[in-house]
Amino acid sequence: MTQRFSKKSLLVATMMAGALLTTPSMAATQATGAASATVVAAASITTNTAMLFGNIYNTDTDTCTLAPNDNSLTGSACASSTGTAGIFDITGTATTAIDITITGTTLTANDVTFAPSWWDGSTVVTALTGPVTTDGAGTFTLQVGGTLTNGPGVVVGTATVFGYTVDVAYQ
Known about the structure:
Elements: H1 7-21, E1 44-49, E2 63-66, E3 73-74, E4 86-91, E5 97-106, E6 108-109, E7 112-119, E8 124-125, E9 129-133, E10 139-150, E11 163-170
């Protein structure tokens, strides 16, 4: 059986298909976006004061701990009760979180081992990484102390120097 279509019905079907496939130009819209950024200074750090334990006794496995928050020395290897914490001045954007990382370049010298610690403004931190927040002026004073532990091979009279690096970066 063959179906026959009239010219009129084919014309109507063609017009309907065309209407469905075209979109009126009034339906298209546009929006414009904007991107912005504020350029801030990189976080920086400068050494203010070198750390100083002073004299320590050479007894094997004895320790001397320098508290970074108050410069007190405690432990059986300490020959004095007061040392000097290492002080670093950190500068960045105001009230911004900054990550601190302390790495050792020489953490054992003359058979004495140095384990750094630092003051985050409220507690002594023994982890070698952690966050701090700059104040309203964009500064933070980092105080570094630590613990010295004597080994069996300590040589009396030898100046013992430990190297460490402090890195800062925005979180």
